[in-house]
Amino acid sequence: MLTSERKLILLDLLKQEGKIVAKTAAGLLEVSEDTIRRDLRDLAGEGLLQRVHGGALPASPAMADFAARQHIAVDDKSAIGRAAAQLIQPGQVVFIDGGTTSSHLVRHLPPHLRATVITHSPSVAVDLVAHPGIEVIMLGGRLFKHSVVGVGSATVEAIRQVRADVYFMGVCSVHPEAGLSTGDFEEAGVKRALSAVAAETIVLASPEKLATASPYQVIPLDELSGLVTMASVPAELLAPYRARGIPIHLA
């Protein structure tokens, strides 16, 4: 069997099963595990999957930069942002992550809402300039241009001085086994710090992020307080999250 043919079979297996177990794939294709691992390494280099210990998981399409992600699933992100905005209560202190879905969240905040928003995203802060009842606190740090957010030790140190009621997190990937993950090491650290000092962490996940994995884990799934996604997501895709007792808010 040609290498190209084997890789197509592996991608088809990933699509059907939602994961690749290297040992199982080696037996199926009658090749060594080293051969399968080499194929997975090549496919990961092309951005077609995410390698994990023992095999691979689907890669997230949300690994693109901020400008490119603005054009992905726009209607879904708007609906998710609207649903998430309804979860914020008057008087709360709220962390809002960077990202394109977060931008939709702040645009849907009711004009009469009075609350405090803390963010490391310049774009989120700017979107709230005209809101009459929202006090905005910006966290400093080095600007990570890919995601247009602050990162680094200064950002993490500022986060440690705050206690928030809820953190609305944006990530590249949400997976029942791999948890919440993203594509940059420092950005993952900032998200982890935000989650650690918030009473609740709610992830905003458009459907293309579900059942995928990215290189850097933020938090395990068990540390999640809620998930906001689309009502159109198939029930079987949401079943593993419901089984873990995670409240799911459907837009």
Compute the average pLDDT.
92
Instruction: Just name the CATH architecture of the largest domain.
Output: 3-Layer(aba) Sandwich
Helix and strand element order: HEHHEEHHEHEHEEEHEEEHEEEHE
Estimate the strand proportion.
Answer: 15-25%
Query: What is the top-level CATH class of the largest domain?
Result: Alpha Beta
CATH topology of the largest domain: Rossmann fold
Distance between the termini: 46 Å
How many beta-strand segments?
15
Strand sequence of the main sheet, in spatial order? Answer: 6-5-4-9-12-14-15
Form type: elongated
Task: Give a quick account of the main beta sheet: strands, pairing sense, barrel closure.
Answer: 7 strands, parallel
Contiguous runs where pLDDT drops below 50 for at least 5 residues:
none
GO molecular function: DNA binding
Keywords: DNA-binding, Repressor, Transcription, Transcription regulation
Protein name: DeoR/GlpR family DNA-binding transcription regulator
InterPro entries: Carb_Metab_HTH_regulators, DeoR-like_C, DeoR_HTH, NagB/RpiA_transferase-like, Tscrpt_reg_HTH_DeoR_CS, WH_DNA-bd_sf
